[in-house]
Amino acid sequence: MLTQPPRRRRAPEALGIDVARRIEQLITQGVLTPGERLNEVALARNLGVSRGPVREAARALEKTGLVTVIMNRGAFVRSLGLDEAMEIYEINAVLFGLASSRAAQSLTAAQAFELRDMVEAMDQAILTDHRERFFEINSGFHAFIFACGRNAEAASLYAGYTRKLMLLRRRSFERPGHMAEANCEHRALMEAMLAGDGARARLLAEAHARLGRARFLDSIGHAAETRAHPASAGKSKTIAKGEDAA
After folding, report:
1. Stated pTM of the model
2. With bands split at pLDDT 50, 70 and 90, how would you rate the model's confidence at 169?
3. Distances in Å between the alpha carbon of 113 and those of 64, 110, 116, 201?
4. Which domains does the chain have, with CATH numbers?
């Protein structure tokens, strides 16, 4: 009779890293929201682990800026202040400009094909109004440009800052037209990179980051207006539709 070999237990360090990665996904996907307490019992049950790895993961995520651990109270998803978010957008604009400029000067044919493929995939996500898909590809597009730019330190800084912005960044695409605007900017940036124009790529990349900040501010402003005046917001939406049709 054949018997299966016993399963190898994952090392505690590997298990903690895996749990941290899965909790990070829950945070960046908006399942766990800013200010929400990490329920160790519920998370351990849902992730199929004991409470120890969840506690270890919370400490690891505190170092990345996604979680705040308060003594005798527990761990909470970090709330990112508006001022801090604006500062991060400004820093990321410079970093993304640097990466795009460097990538434009050394882009290979295979990398160019990959960029085109991602821009076209985002177009498809816009057509189907698939925001989650758009957000996923959008994040990959930015990360890929950093990989092409071959500056590991800049990529690491950008990844760390962007991880914090994930708490808010999805809201940049909540309003109609925002995804299309962003991908139009992606396409212009891509064309500059394909032309090998590093200076133009830098300018377009920095502008794209700052326009992303403007889209985020527009989204939260619209949300606040809707909460304060739901009836007038609906009326404005109807008027806007009429203007678009005209």
Report:
1. 0.71
2. low
3. 33, 5, 5, 17
4. 12-77 (1.10.10.10), 82-225 (1.20.120.530)
